[in-house]
Design goal:
heterotrimer, A mainly alpha, B alpha+beta, C mainly alpha, A: mainly alpha, two-stranded antiparallel sheet, 2 strands, B: alpha+beta, five-stranded mixed sheet, 5 helices, about 40% helix, about 20% strand, elongated
Chain lengths: ~425, ~260, ~600
Amino acid sequence: MTESIVVNNVIASCCDLTSVRKVRALNLLGVMCIVAASLLATGCGQTPAASFRLNLVESSKQQLTTSQEQQVATILAALFGTPDDPRVPPECNLDIAKLKLAAGPVRSDIVGRKNGLYREHCSHCHGVTGDGMGPTAAFLNPYPRDYRPGVFKFKSTERADKPTHSDLVMVLNNGLAGSSMPSFALLSDAKIDALAEYVKYLSIRGEVELSLMRAYFELDDEDEGVLPQSREFLFEEIIDPVAERWASAEDAIIDVPEMPSDLDMAVSIAKGKELFYGNKANCVKCHGVSGLGDGQANDYDDWNKVVVQAQKTVEGGMKQAEKVSTWDMSAEERDEHQTELAWLDRFETVLDANALRPRMIRPRNLRQGVYRGGMRPLDLYYRIHAGVNGAPMPAAKGTVPPEDIWHIVNYIRSLPYDFNGTLGVDRPMVARDRM
Amino acid sequence: MKRLAGLFWSLLFLAVPILGVITFAVAPAYDIWLPKDVSEHGAAVDGLFYFILWLTGVVFIATEVVLFWFIWKYDANNEKAEVKYRHGSHVLEVVWTIVPAAVLLFLAIYQMNTWADVKMRRPNMAPTVEVIGRQFEWRLRYPGRDGMLGTPDDLHLVNDLHLPVDEDILIQLKSMDVLHSFFLPNVRIKQDAVPGMKIPVWFKAREEGVFDIVCAELCGWGHYKMKGRVTFESRESYEQWLEVKYQEQEATQASNSET
Amino acid sequence: MSTADTKTTIVQDSPQKQETQVHAQPSPAGKLSTFLSTYVFSKDHKVIGLQFLFSTLLWFLIGGLLALAVRWQVAWPWSDVPVVGKLFAQQGGQMAPEFYTMLFTMHATVMIFLVIIPILAGAFGNFLIPLMIGADDMAFPTLNMLSYWFMWPAFIAFGASFFVEGGAASSGWTSYPTLATNVNSSPGAGWGQTLWLIGLTFVGVSSMLGSVNYMTTIILMRAPGMTMFRLPMTIWAMFITAVLQAFALPVLTAAGFMQLADRSLGTGFFTPEGNIVNNAIATAGGGQPLLWQHLFWFYSHPAVYIMILPAMGMVSDILTCFARKPLFGYRPMVYSVAGIAGLGFIVWGHHMFMSGMNPALGTTFMVSTMMIALPSAVKTFNWLGTIWAGRIQFTTSMLFALSFVSMFIIGGLSGIFMAATPVDIFIHDTYFIVAHFHYVLFAGTAMGVWAAIYFWFPKMFGRTMNEFWGKVHFFLTFIFLNGTFFTMHILGAVGFPRRLADAYHYETFHHLQPLNAFMTYCAIGMVASQIIFAVNFFWSMFYGPVAGRNPWNSNTLEWTAPSPPGHGNFDFQPIVHRGPYEYSVPGIESDHLMQTDPPNAAAAAAAAAAH
C-alpha cells in the first residue's frame, strides 16, 4: 500500500502544471475515469444459460398453440432436465453418470476431470439440442446429423432399427470419412463412451418430443387441447415405445455370412459387376454407369425432406389462400381462413429461422475409395444389406441373396483401382490418387 | 523529489532486462520450454536456438542496461554537467555496423548446414507413409506389403501415425483441400501441406514414445482440432501393428470386442 | 559534413498560396457548405490528418476489443464470454470456433489496415509533413482529401462484413488460398472474404493517393533553405515509407484482384487442379497456392516497414527534443532507413520458409533477412548515442519514446530467431512469432504513436494533455504490455501454435493454460488503461492548459507556427538556416536553436567543431 502511495507521489511530482490547475484537472479526470469504468462494469452481466430448443418445425407442422408448446417444454424439462443438468427416466436405460460427464458447460472439476464434453467437441455443429443446427452447421456439406428423429445412417443393425452403442462409438472413433465429422479416437474410451451415451440421450429426448407433438394431433375435442395428465399415458404411449426400440437394437444386428474363403476374387468381382448393373440390385441407377455417383441424383435425405415438404406445404397453402375470396365467406369461415393464414405465416418464419436450406443428396462416388461408414468389407456389407437409413439408398436384403452381397462388396472395393469405363468429369484416376 | 522521478522511471526500464531474464530462467522449471526432443536433427536445431538465445540475450541485457544507465545518469534533474554537443561519431558508426554485420553473416552461414540436413538432403528411398491433410484430420496411407502407394493393399488410417524408431522415415505430404502444416513439436519438424504439391519430409526418431501431431497452418474453423498422434516403436511392434490394422481394414466379420 | 553549412536553398513560391487565400474567404453558399468544406470534405492537410487520427483511434478501440475476445477464448476456451457474449449468443455465451477464427482475422486486419498504416501515414504523415517542411499544404490537396474518403468504403466494407452471412473474413489476415479462395472452405470465406478483399483494395487506393502526395510534397515544397539533409527524421521516414508504398502496393492490389477473380469469376490463379473443399469441387484448376503467398508478402513485408519506419522517425525527433541533444548520427540514421527500405524488398521469403517453397531459396532469404537486422541495429545504437550525455526530461512523450527504444530492442532481437531457418522450423507459426510482431507493432509502433500524440497534441489542438494521467497511462500500458507479450516468447518456445481456438487438448500444451490466463488478465488491464488515455485525450482537447507555439522548446518548423496552425499553416514564410537537431549548442544562451532562427556565428563555429 505505502509503495503505491510513493509511486503516485513520484508520478504526481513529475508534472509541470501549476498546482491549482492540476488539482482541478485531476479531479475532473478522475471522475471521468470512474464514470467510464462503471459504464464498462454495468455492461457486464450473466450470459443466459444454455437451453434446449423446441422442435419448432414439428410443432408448427402439427399446428400446436403456444400454450401447447409450453406444455411440451414443461414435460420435456421434467423428464430430461436441461443441457446443464440432464435427467432421464429409468425406462430409457441411460447411465446418468456418463451423461453428467458429457453435459453442461465446458469445465474441469476438482480432480481436473474435464466435464461438458458435448459442448466442447460436438455442440458447435450438432447444436446444444442435438438438432444439427449448431452455429457452424449451415456451412458444412453434408449437414451435421439432427439426432431428434432418432435416425442413424451408419450402423450394424437392420435398416429401420436403432444403432447399437458400439456403432455410435465406432463413428466417434473413426469419424465419417468424406464428411466434416472428425475422428475422436484420441479421446479416452470413457469420454467416447460418455459422448455416445449423450447422443442417445439427445436422440431419445428428441423422439419423445416428436411423439408428444404428434400426440396433440390425435387429441379428441373433449381433451380441449391438453394431453392426458396421467403417468400411464406419458410412459406407455410416449416413452416406452422409444426406449424399447433403443433397447432392441442389440438384437437387430445383421447376421453376416462368412465370405467364402476359397473365393476367386476375379470371378467374384465379375459377378459383383453383373449385379451392380443388373435389375435386382440396380446400383447403377443412382451410382451411375461409371460408378462416379452420377446416376439419378435429385432426391433428398429424410432430414432435408422434412424441410422440403414443409416448404411445399407453406407455398401451396399460400397459393391456395391467395385464390380464395374472403367476400363470400361466413364469419366462421373467415376466422378459420385467418387462422390458416396466420399459421402459414408462422410456419414460414419458423422454417426460415429453424431449418437449414434443403440440400440434395448425391449418390456416393464409388471411385474415390472414400466410404463414410467405414471401408471394411463388413461395413460395405452392412450398407448394401440394410441400405442407408434416412437416405434413398435401399436395402438389398430380400432382393439379393446374402452370399451375392459379398460379390457386390468385392466389386465396389475394386472400383477405385480398376477403371475400365469412359473418363468421367471427375477424373477418377486423379481422384484415386487423392484417395 | 524530482530526483525520485528519474529513479523511478529508470528503474522501470531496468526492470525490463531483469524480469526478462528471470522469465527465461524460470520458464524451464515450470516446463514452459522446448518440449522433449526425440529426433536426430533436433539437437542441431535446439543448439542453434540456444546459441541465438545467448547471443541475443547478451545484446539484450547490454543495450537495456545501457539504456537504463543513460536514463538514470542523464536525468535533467541529476546531471549538472554540460550536454555533450555531438552530431555523431564516425568511428562508432563504423564499429557498430561492421561488428553486427560480421556476427549476423556468421550466423547465417553457420546454420546453413542444419537447414540443408532437414530440408534439402532428401534420403533416397520410397515413402514410408503418405500423410494427407484434410479439413480437419490427418489421413494416412501406408503402402502395404507391395511397398507401393495406390494399390489395393494400401492401409488407410486417420490421425494415428505409427513409425519405426531409429530408421530413416520419408513422409510424402499432401493436402486435399487447403493449406495445413504438419508439425511434430517433439521431432522439430514442421512443413506446410500444400494442395497440388507432394512435399517430402524426412527425419529419424531416436526414442520410442507417443507424441502430438499439430496442425500449424490455419486451415479453417476446425483448425484447433486437427490433432494427430505419432507413435515411435520398434520395428517388430511396428510391423505387428501394421498387420493388425490391415486385418481390421479387411474384416468381414464383426470382432468380439465390438459386440 | 555539417548539415548547417550546406548553403543551397530552394526558393520557390508555393502554388498553393493563392488557392488557399481564395479558399479561406467566407463562402457565399451558406453555412452548411462552409461547414462541410471546412470540417468534412476539407482539403486542409491538418483537418485530414485529424480525420485520420480520430477514425483510426476509433478502430484502434474496436481492434483492441477484438483482441480481448481472442484472448478470452485462448485463456478459457469455450467458457461463456462476459459482456459481449450476449451479442453473439451462440449456445449461451460460448464462442463457436469459426467465430474465434473470425476474431483474430479481423483483429489483425483492423489493426494493420485500419489503424497502424493510416495512423502513421494518414494521420501523422498528413499533419506533419507540410508543417515540418514549411509548406502551406500538400501538393495535391484534393487527392489528399480523397485519400481520406477512400478509407470510408474500406471502413464500411470491413465493418459490414461482421454482419453478413457467415461473418467477417476468417482466413487469417494473410488470406492464404485455398482457404480464402474457395467459398466453401469456411463460413467466413463467403461474403466476408469478398468484402475483406474490397476493403483491402480501398485501403490500398487510399495509401497510394497519400504516398504520391507525400513524395511530391517532400520533394517539391520544402521551405527555402530546407535541403533534404536538413529534414527531420520524421519526414525522412515518411518519405521512404511513401516510396515503399508506391512500389509495393500495386502488387498487393493486383493479387487482391486475382483472388477476387478466383472467388467470383471462377478463375484459377491460386487453385490447383481437382481441389475439393468441404465436398465441393473447384470449378477451375491449374493454379498454385504459393503464388499468392509470394505476391502477398512482396507487399506485406515492405508493409512491415511501412508500419514501423514513421514511428522510428517520430521517436528520433522526440528523443532529441527531450534529451536536449542533437541526434546522434543523422546521416547514418537516414541511410539506415533507406537501407531498411531497399532490403525490405528482398526478404519477403522469410515468411515462407515452411511453405513448401524451394528450401534453397530459403537460404537466400535467410541471408538477406539477417542483413536487414543491421540497419535496425544501427538505428538502436544511434538512439542510445542520442540520449547519452543528454539532459533527459521525463515528459509522457519522452517516456513513450524511450519505451519504444527499449521494446524495439526486444522485437528486433527476437526477429533473429525467425530469420534462422532451422530455428524457424520449430517456432514458425507459434506464439514466438506473435510475441515478435507485437513487440514491433504494439510495443514499438503503438508506443511511438502515443509518444507522437502526447508530443504533437499541443500543435493539433492548441492545448497540452494532462501529464500526470499521461504518465499513469504510460506506466500501466508499459507494465501490462510486457505482461501480455513477453510471456508469449516462452509460450512460443514450447511450440504453442497461433490461431488455435483450444490448444489444451494437446498433451504438449496442456499445462500452458494458467500462463495464458495470466496474459489475458494483463491484456484486459492494458485495454482498460486506455480509458485513461481516451478521457485525457478528449478532456485535454477542451480543457487542457493552453500551449504556446513551442511548448517543448523544440527546433523543427511546425513549432514556429501558431497552435493550432490556421489555414495555410505559417503566419510568415519560414526560412531554414540549419538542421533540425541543434539543441544545447555551446555558446548560445538558449538550449535550442530553431531551424528558422537567424544564422548565428557561435552556433556555426560550434557545429563545425563538433564534427
